[in-house]
Amino acid sequence: MYWEKQLETIPREELSLLQAERLKKTIANAQRTSFYRRLFSHNKIDPEKIKSPEDLKFIPPTTKVDLREGFPFGFLAVPLEEAVRLHSSSGTTGTPTVIYYTASDLDRWTNQVARSMYAVGMRKNDVFQNMMSYGLFTGGLGMHYGAERLGALTIPIGAGNSKRQIWFLKFFKSTAIHIIPSYALLLAQLIKAEDLDPRQDFNIRIMLLGAEPHSEETRRRIEEIYGAKAYNSYGLSEVNGPGVAFECVFQEGMHLWEDYYILEILNPQTLSPTPPGEVGEIVLTTIYRDATPLIRYRTGDLASLLEEPCPCGRTHRRISRIQGRTDDMFIFRGVNIFPMQIEKVLMSNPEVGNNYRIILEREDYRDKMIVEVEIKPELFLGDLQKLARLRERIQSELHSEILVTPEVILVEPGSIPAPEGKVQRVIDHRQL
Amino acid sequence: MARQLSIFAENKPGRIEKITRLLSQEGINIRAITISSANGFGVIKILASEPQKAFEVLRNHNFPVYLQEVIAVVMNDEPGGLHRVAQALAENQINIEDAYGFVIKSGEKAVLVIQVENQPQAHNILERNGFQLLTDEEIYQL
Predict the structure, then answer these.
(1) Which of A76, A423, B32, B47 sees the fewest Cβ atoms within 10 Å?
(2) Contact A107, A145 (CB under 8 A)
(3) A317 and A366, same domain (yes or no)
(4) Considering only CA atoms, which of B139, B115, B117, B133 is closest in space to residue B32?
(5) What is the ipTM of this complex?
(6) Smallest Cα distance from A391 to chain B, Å
(7) Which CATH class is domain B70-141?
(8) How many CB atoms lie within 10 A of CB A429?
(9) Which residue of B has its CA nearest to A352?
């Protein structure tokens, strides 16, 4: 039932001691980074005095902006030759973020993933089809190594190419898959189009849903379609990737692995802890990672804390489904997108006016992104062909920035409601 | 030379209604109209009396509008009328990028409006071949 019984069911008091121990090491380690050295001295923090999770409140949180400004080496705590891998956020216009891993960092991350998979019932006799993209994105590689650690036969098929996915599902009778929930819905349509029944013709018993927030209703629907158990997972590339928190077989919230992270749920405005059960921002401190320590990292993800013990016996507390974001980031087909990335591309085209709007839709299980763009009257020279070319150019520029291709629609100036106060750039019609 | 209005408009109900209403309120007469569209938007081309005034009216109502020189050739409204114009241009290797026509008086006169890359050259060729080319004012008086 447990991958590591002793650690997973560790009594809370012992867990606190373990956290304090690891936190002290992390604080010492963080002083090797230029970012935290400066943060401590600037805020007159005596690192020696940070001894337990309760002392964390004296340290200002770290944000994604800090990570960007620290690019490329501001958060590196080990000599570069000790690092064996990096993962980085996408984006060609903005500064990316980068996380380095030592060999033991990877070993620990892999262990978290294996532990998570074991908790939902995956075993070494499973055939695991990993339908997430490999590469800089952590979702693919993170789960891949966890599954190998578990001993499962791992198929590194990657994202997309539905025909091939279906062929592998059929031929190798994959029993566990890692998939984006919106893609699971779409894939079911394609399976039916090939006259196959996801319940009868495949052998899927466990589905790991990741990279995209989704509702309980969507999970139930996916389970119904595939005749399998679907489990929610949580992770973010700044904090390793998948496996930070994972559901167990009880499917009631995700256990956040507190021997690896100190969890805080804070009011995003006041930064004080939200009462249990209330939604706040997930703030994480990595306490068992060497190359890139992060102290009180503001994830931007909103969730609530479930304090009650879980019937599974694990003592690591659970977080709810992700309820939203503190910023305007949205997730489309598993890709994290900030409207600013889209804005930068649009505004680099002189023919484009200042107003734009991003509309997200789910049509026949297929997610669609529409970018409405106003054109500038002064730069319209009467030519339909030129406009068609402009539209294509914007589409391909957007693709290279956000890695998905939205449908660009050119609209008349003034047809997008002018922003008043807080600008609502993203209109999400998807039923998550 | 004659001038036509090119208007960018979204492909949705009510756009032509609005454009024609604005022009009619100003007493501007439309001689010809053509619409081409792609991917949810279109370009409406209008040959109007008082193109400058029409341009200002639409511009003031926020339409992306462009005033563009075109060639308006008078043809005989009879079999082969259009062919003679096309022949003159083809013989001189001139490619027609966009064209539309309208009849002024059935069985007598028609007008062909064309856009080519090198307008002055096409203009000269047509004049040399004895075609009558219309100016804004002449279109207005039709």
Answers:
(1) A423
(2) no
(3) no
(4) B139
(5) 0.79
(6) 9
(7) alpha beta
(8) 11
(9) B64
CATH label of the domain that carries residue A265: 3.40.50.12780
Q: How far apart are CA A234 and CA A246, in angstroms?
A: 6
Kindly state whether residues A249 and A364 are assigned to the same domain: no
Out of A384, A409, A412, closest to residue B64 by CB = A412
Q: A345 and A286 in one domain?
A: no
Q: What is the dihedral of CA A257, A261, A262, A264, to 10 degrees?
A: -80
Helix (H, G, I), strand (E, B) or coil at A282: strand
Last residue of one domain, picked from the residues A276, A301, A327:
A327
Mutant choice from A355, A380, A386 vs B, greatest count of B C-beta within 10 A: A380
Q: Dig out the tokens for A209 from the structure.
A: 């849903």
3-class DSSP assignment, residue A355:
strand
A234: containing domain: 1-327
User: Which residue of chain B is at minimal alpha-carbon distance from A413?
Assistant: B62
Please, what is the angle between helix A339-347 and helix A384-402, to 10°? 140
Find where tokens 């408009």 sit: B9
Q: Inspect the interface and report whether the beta carbons of A375 and B64 lie closer than 8 Å.
A: yes
**Total number of residues shown for chain A:** 432
Rounded CA-CA distance A129/A126 in Å is: 10
Partner residue opposite A375 with nearest CB, options B6, B8, B68: B8
Nearest CB among A376, A387, A413 relative to B41 is that of A387
Number of domains forming the structure of chain A: 2
Residues A184 and A248 placed together within one structural domain of the fold? yes
Span B16-58, pLDDT tens digits:
999 999 999 999 999 999 998 888 889 999 999 899 999 999 9
CATH number for the segment(s) B2-69:
3.30.2130.10
**CATH 3.30.70.260 intervals, chain B:** 70-141
Question: Considering A294, A327, A360, which residue would you say is the last residue of a domain?
Answer: A327
- DSSP-H helix ranges across A55-152: 64-69, 103-119, 138-150
Which tens digit of pLDDT belongs to each residue from A149-179? 999 999 999 999 999 999 999 999 999 999 9
Candidates B8, B40, B42; nearest CB to A409: B40
CATH 3.30.2130.10 domain locations along chain B: 2-69
